[in-house]
């Protein structure tokens, strides 16, 4: 967790919100690791703030299922099983696939430059698993934000963060990240060309590839005999 010291909280930001942002990112990128115990006091010292906002942020993560409290000891990442992984991807398929189809029917002229920047950011970070995961998260949450539904973004963000609790696994393989970045570009092209069915197909394949190839899970369609 030594990298957290470089992310000291700016005084103009809500300390609790910024602490929450940093801790979420640390879970996503593996800086907060499974099997380790973390105290709000120690993390607050690294961030250069009082304990209260850090503890509040950690309790929020407990409510989201990304951390669990261990009585009188601290916080840790909870056990995340293959069944948990399957349930998360079931929900992500239900939410993200049709959302990409709906985006294809929207006027996104003002978003094209930012979409290109985010796609390039994932392409440029395929050599670094930690950086790629952060940019991948930015890309997908921005796409969902274009729908204008803040609750959708919040739900999927929590689901994505829970997915990372299963560990990176084969996702550390550079070629898998190259393929994921390629699918990002294909997805944006389908959306901007108004191809709703194509956008949904790419998003479905993308999620199934992540579930199966990155995490070793069984895609929903296969489990259901589709």
UniProtKB/TrEMBL annotation:
Residues 13-80 form the HTH gntR-type domain. The keyword Protein transport does not apply. GO terms for molecular function: DNA binding; DNA-binding transcription factor activity. It comes from the Bacteria. It holds the Pfam family GntR. PANTHER family: GNTR FAMILY REGULATORY PROTEIN, TRANSCRIPTIONAL REGULATOR, GNTR FAMILY. This is GntR family transcriptional regulator.
